[in-house]
Amino acid sequence: MPQLLRVQCFNVSRDGFGTGEGQSLERPFGHADPTPLFSWRAATASFVYRTEPGGSRGLDDYLTRDAECNIGAEIMGRNKFGPQRGPWENHDWQGWWGDNPPFHTPVFVLTHHVRPSFTLADTTFHFLDASPSEALAQAKQAADGRDVRLGGGVATIREFLEADLVDTMHIAVAPVDLERGERLWDSPDELLDRFHLESVPSSSGVTHLLFWRR
């Protein structure tokens, strides 16, 4: 089977924004409250940060579990790794996820300012100044036959879409408007020239959009 580049469980608002304006260390999503975007996933039995038994089953839980299935590497933009801009001033800061990041694979962070790789638990972060196709080639090699997940943020997903490298996408649309920030699209119909699309509403209030190549 070919290795796929997959966007999984990426959250956007009803008006198409994946994050708000004014990202900072204290507010990774800027002015936006991330709770309405992520609450559907946090409520599932399979949520990665769940520490107690329970949680919902059904569609939301299935898609949460599917996000981890057959993933061998991840690509993300620098803004998903952290809020810093320009040259790195502090190599001691190692991302928002603590000592045990939820990725459990090699992670390739796209940046114009590279820094040495480092490992936390079973996740190794590599920093690349590379084109989308170059980054994908390295990630596929590291994935050892499994798929590569494109983790975001918005600008990175748009860049890989423009390079026509994305094979499948799962976008969860929350019933909230952010009004400003980084926008993934004006309408998902913009992608219908290249992708099939199925829209599946959930009892949690989000609508799951599933894209796959034509």
From TrEMBL:
Question: Could you give a single Gene Ontology term from the biological process aspect?
Answer: riboflavin biosynthetic process
Q: Which organism is it from?
A: Micromonospora chokoriensis
> In terms of domain of life, where is this protein from?
Bacteria
Its protein name is RibD C-terminal domain-containing protein
- InterPro entries annotated for this entry? DHFR-like_dom_sf (IPR024072), RibDG_C (IPR002734)
Tell me the Gene3D superfamilies matching this sequence: Dihydrofolate Reductase, subunit A
The record places domain Bacterial bifunctional deaminase-reductase C-terminal at 93-178
Instruction: Give any GO molecular function from the UniProt entry.
Output: 5-amino-6-(5-phosphoribosylamino)uracil reductase activity
